[in-house]
Structure formats: C-alpha cells, structure tokens
C-alpha cells in the first residue's frame, strides 16, 4: 500500500473515490444543495493506493480556527473526506491514513485535530473524543407563546431587557457578506466554534446557509442598524413546518428576538430549530415548558489532542489549582504525565513524576478539553480513573467553563 499527498489535479479522482466509499455518486445532490468538495484544500488530501496504483482510500483536512474557552483562537485540522472502498476494508487502510494524517498535522505545527464522525464507534480508536453536542427543538406554533421574564432589577442580566433592535427578511442571495461578517463575530466569542474561511462562502460549499440552496434569512440589527444576528430558514412539509438551519447570535436577547420572529410566522404549524446548544434557555422562555420538544440530541465536534501540554496551556481557565494528569495515547504509542498549574486564568503544563490525580486515555481528555463534559462524568462511566476521592471534583472545578462549547459548522 502506498499513501501519497494529493494535488489540484487529483480533485476528480479524490471526489470519485470518496463517493464510491460511501456508495454515492458525485452528481448526487448534497443535503442543502452545496458541493462540499469545492472547498477542499488539495494540498492537505491523501490517497491510499493499491499495488496496481488504483485508489482504495481517502482522507483530507481543512485549515480552520477553533475558539477555545477563554476566547483563544488556535489553528486546527478539520478532518474530512475519509473513506475506504468496500472492497478494501478490514485491511488496515483507514489506520494507515489516520496515522499519516496525524503526522502531517503535527508537522504543520497544529496541536489539535477535529472532525464530525459519520459513525460514533470509528474514531475513538484514533484518539478522537466527542467534545460538543447539539440538538433539535420543535415547537408547535399554537403553543409558542413566550412567558414574561420574571427577573427584574439592575442585577438581572444584560440580556433580560426588551430588545431594541429590528428584524429584516432577506433572500440568501442578497446577504452573503452580512452572513459572513455576523458568523465571524459569533465564532470568535463561542467556545467550540470553527471559522468559516472566505473560500467556503465564495464557493458556496457545504450546507445552508453557506450553500446556494434557497433560504430566507431573518437578519437582526441592533439599535444602530448594525447586523448582529441571523436565522436561516425554509418552509415546507405537511403539516407546514418552518425549519431553522442555524441561528447565529452573540447575545441571548438577539437569539430570543429571532426565535420570536420565526415562531410568529404565518401559515406555519410548527417550527424546528436545528443546532440548538445543550441547556439553551429557549424552552424555559416559553409559557408552556412542554411545548419545546427536544430531539436529535447528538455529538457534533470530535477533538483530538496531539500535544497535551500545548493544548492545555492554550485554553482559558476559570479556577486556580493544580492537577496531575496521566495520559495514554495507544494509537500513537505515546504516554505522558503532566502537571497542570492554573493561576489567574492561565495554565502552565509540564511533564512531572508526581503521583497522578487522574489517569485518562487521550480520547477522553480530548472530550473534556473544551469543557462540555465534566471529568466526573467520565470517572463515573469508568473511562477516567480518579486516584483519590477529591480528584474528580478538583478536575470538574478546573475544566468548568463560563460558556458551554457549541459547534454548528458542517464540514
């Protein structure tokens, strides 16, 4: 088996191979109408070739920025286009591609790799762990009344007051620049969010609202007329359903204003919000708590740490403290023990020979990294070992974040 890097001349061959691996055809419409391969970076692609030179597997990566807790922006490899032909599975092709890809990611100086897993059992053995989750919220329109906010007074929160902005409806083709700018501001403030490079918007790659599929866009503007949020939506189905592809807002009040707008749409029997973050307050804002039906609660962004000290030092922290982590990386045959010291929101992580507080596989540390999963949860699940009674609580306090991580970019 030979694994080689791809060039621009390999685009058609790469696309045909990965589609064959999934039993599809390149002309099959992608959900939402976009051609995802128009954003491929062919200098980051890999082809696995059989002895006769024919391709039997693929892997690729995008160059993204990931927002960490504390709003640090770091470069990451966004793994995509991974597939092995049905005729060549169970021969080590996927493992060889993953090992080569991780080596190239490290060579570029990136210490994190991320992906969306088509099947949950596949990528854990390569060191990836689910780190963000997303869900769907369905609200019947006849039960969509909002409750009056009960918190009052100067300390009730900046987002609890009445919205002073406005909502304007545009067609997708009219507001590409607005979407790009609003999304970029949003992703810089949201832990777990990925950048959408200009190439994605320019080529209309991916899913709505990036893709050319027709969508209406509800654009929210603040009191000064500056766009600060949007909801991408379409109508269809029987009963008539309004589906919101994504709602982008950096402030809760803006999200609420956009939710009120779509829930008040005429000739609609129900509204489906896709990509709602876990524990989002929208259900609690409804007068009838049971009106919001939660569904499709699913993992989304999977993370893989490639340099534990660099990764832990890069993110922000809410609590001071020390933690000794013993980390095993079976796929790369690596092992390390590290002392994490946090002071004033900054961390230093160095090798140590002290006794560990927690022992973890790299996949589980990767799941904990963005703060969306409490270490005690994985201790109770039997995946992370706590070496003394207070270890899990200490780790919970350290890894806690002020804002839960969330990612809605499809790649």
From TrEMBL:
Q: Which domain of life is it from?
A: Bacteria
Tell me which family the UniProt entry assigns to this protein: Belongs to the acetyltransferase Eis family.
UniProt-listed PROSITE patterns? GNAT
* Self-association and partners: Homohexamer; trimer of dimers.
Native organism is Streptomyces kunmingensis
CDD domains listed in its UniProt record:
NAT_SF (cd04301)
UniProt keyword Transferase present: yes
Q: Where in this chain does the record put each N-acetyltransferase domain?
A: 1-152
Question: Any idea what this protein is called?
Answer: GNAT family N-acetyltransferase
Which residues participate in acetyl-CoA binding? Answer: 82-84, 90-95, 118-119
Q: Which HAMAP family match?
A: Eis
Which InterPro entries does the entry mention?
Answer: Acetyltransf_17 (IPR041380), Acetyltransferase_Eis (IPR051554), Acyl_CoA_acyltransferase (IPR016181), Eis_dom (IPR025559), GNAT_dom (IPR000182), NAcTrfase_Eis (IPR022902), SCP2_sterol-bd_dom_sf (IPR036527)
Signal peptide region: none
- UniProt keyword list: Acyltransferase, Transferase
Q: Do the record's keywords include Transferase? A: yes
Q: Where are the active-site residues found?
A: 123, 411
């Amino acid at each position: 088996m030979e694994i080689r890097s791809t060039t621009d001349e390999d685009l058609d061959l790469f696309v045909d191979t990965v589609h064959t691996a999934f039993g599809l055809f390149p002309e099959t419409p992608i959900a939402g109408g976009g051609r995802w391969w128009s954003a491929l970076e062919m200098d980051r692609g890999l082809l696995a070739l059989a002895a006769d030179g024919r391709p039997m597997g693929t892997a690729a990566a995008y160059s993204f920025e990931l927002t960490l807790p504390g709003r640090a922006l770091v470069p990451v490899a966004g793994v995509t286009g991974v597939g092995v032909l049905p005729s060549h599975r169970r021969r080590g092709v996927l493992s060889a591609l993953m090992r080569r890809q991780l080596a190239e990611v490290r060579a570029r100086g990136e210490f994190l790799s991320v992906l969306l897993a088509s099947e949950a059992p596949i990528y854990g053995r390569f060191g990836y762990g689910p780190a963000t989750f997303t869900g769907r919220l369905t609200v019947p329109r006849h039960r969509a009344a909002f409750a009056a906010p009960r918190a009052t007074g100067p300390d009730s929160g900046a987002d609890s007051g009445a919205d002073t902005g406005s909502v304007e409806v545009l067609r997708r083709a009219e507001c590409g620049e607005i979407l790009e700018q609003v999304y970029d501001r949003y992703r810089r403030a949201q832990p777990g969010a990925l950048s959408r490079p200009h190439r994605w918007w320019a080529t209309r790659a991916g899913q709505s609202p990036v893709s050319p599929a027709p969508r209406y866009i509800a654009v929210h503007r603040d009191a000064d007329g500056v766009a600060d949020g949007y909801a991408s939506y379409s109508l269809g189905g029987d009963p008539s359903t309004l589906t919101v592809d994504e709602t982008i807002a950096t402030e809760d009040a803006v999200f609420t204003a956009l939710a009120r707008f779509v829930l008040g749409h005429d000739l609609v029997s129900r509204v489906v919000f896709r990509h709602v973050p876990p524990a989002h307050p929208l259900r609690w804002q409804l007068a009838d708590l049971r009106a919001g039906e939660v569904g499709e609660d699913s993992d989304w962004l999977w993370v893989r740490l490639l340099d534990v000290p660099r990764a832990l030092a890069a993110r922000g922290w809410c609590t001071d403290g020390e933690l000794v982590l013993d980390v095993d990386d079976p796929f790369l045959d690596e092992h390390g023990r590290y002392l994490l010291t946090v002071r004033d929101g900054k961390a230093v992580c160095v090798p140590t020979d002290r006794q560990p507080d927690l022992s973890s596989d790299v996949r589980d540390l990767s799941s904990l990294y963005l703060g969306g999963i409490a270490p005690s949860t994985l201790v109770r699940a039997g995946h992370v070992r706590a070496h003394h009674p207070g270890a899990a609580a200490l780790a919970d306090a350290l890894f806690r974040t002020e804002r839960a991580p969330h990612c809605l970019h499809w790649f």
